[in-house]
Amino acid sequence: MRSVSLIGAGVTSFGVRSEGVVRLGAEICRMAIEDAGIGLERVEAFFLGNFAGHAFTGQNHLAPMVAHAAGLGPVPCTRAEGACASGGLAVHQGVLAVASGAADFVLVAGVEKMSTTTTVETAEILAAAGDYESESSIGATFPALFALIARRHMYEYGTTREDMAMVAVKNHAHGYLNPDAHLQKKVTLEEVLDARPVADPLCLLDCSPISDGAAAVVLCPSEMAPDFHSKPVRVLSSVQASDVPALSDKKNIAGFQATRRAAEEAFRRARVNPEDVDLAEVHDCFTIGEILALEDIGFYRKGEGSQGAGEGETALGGSMPVNVSGGLKAKGHPVGATGVAQITEITLQLRGDAGPRQVRGAEVGLVHNLGGSGATCAVHILASDA
Amino acid sequence: MIDKRAELSLSIQVCPACGRIYFDDCVDCHRCGAWLKKTIVTGRGKVYSYSVVHVGPKGMAVPYLLALVDLDGSGRVLGIVEGQSKNQLSVNQSVYFARVSKNSPVFRCA
User: Fold this and answer.
1) Is the predicted pLDDT of residue A267 greater than 60, yes or no?
2) What is the CATH T-level fold of the domain A137-205+235-384, as seen in this structure?
3) Distance from the CA of B34 to the CA of which of A39, A92, A348, B78 falls in 20 to 30 A?
4) What is the value of ipTM here, to two decimals?
């Protein structure tokens, strides 16, 4: 297998966007291609992360539509869907295509347009990522599923509402520094704790917002990368893992088996250890999600993940900053775009181009993208290639 | 019918292959296709985790209580807990099966 590097990256600002889903996708594709310094005609394959184009906008079959609108040639276009991990899966497929030698230049994008539906409709569309028969059909919305997870984590490890709220406080402070973030405002611990309840113990400010947005990256063999970008970023590992979707089928819900499997294998293949990682973007769809991710990836022992935000270790300036983009929590969570946007954030950071939220001296970054209530997980470990 | 004061007996169907529990009369597992096995349980169980849901799908009155329940002598199921005002549930609390709604169990606190 060939080593793969990132030579182009782009992300739209997240939030309520006036553009439609195809145009959002096409614009970010062109931005990433321009960043890579290659012509559109060099692209040999296109992968698109998108969760629910049809439910949100009436439009399915988005990969060739976005590709055509972006001006790509008649190349193979494939949509990857793995709920909130759709973007991570698209990147994984792109990495495999280059690594295998099937293509030299691959464009990967992720897009979601979510502001077209009401909040209740959006919640129902998202709930379809759960097990319909045993969960969504009886009122288990996604906040409810993560509330069940949070409650169990509280019971097993003594995690508190304040511990979770601190994740929101930290990630909002990061989002405040990101001009592309959906929620560019700081929040206080009291504001998070006093927010209206959504699914107890989770309140409104424990939940990521409903956002429109898109992100894209360009991949090529590492040996060719320096010809196109002065600061290429190498993909040290790209791993995907799965688990049973329904919470009732999991032995323990205070952690995600798919994250553990993907992270363990990603570290093994990258030949790095958790302590070698300088920064991470992890899947904080809900505040408890970040705590679980930090434990399951292996940055913290089980039950101690809340130390990260609580003691400032995962804040910008801390020993290992997590979600300096603002995370899903503050940057926003356009579902299909999220996994790709996490990669673009780490790419910017490893290039040293992240502006006021730059993690100084960042050389190794980890990306964790989760689908559903832990059924799908993609983990990427990236390193500066300078 | 179930009477919480009497000795409880509840007939459920369990998939011998994947473990999924069914409360309706289907004969084979909707997921893996295996023939379901009729199993008699007490209908009692313990709360593994729960949430008071304040924002629900269209047509569902809020708040409602959702709980993952470990059924005595069987596996874990997700169901609604009724007859309980909010914040009156806890992990490990005993509940008993009350009825079926939308092919899923509805529990009440013991």
Assistant:
1) yes
2) Peroxisomal Thiolase; Chain A, domain 1 (3.40.47)
3) B78
4) 0.94
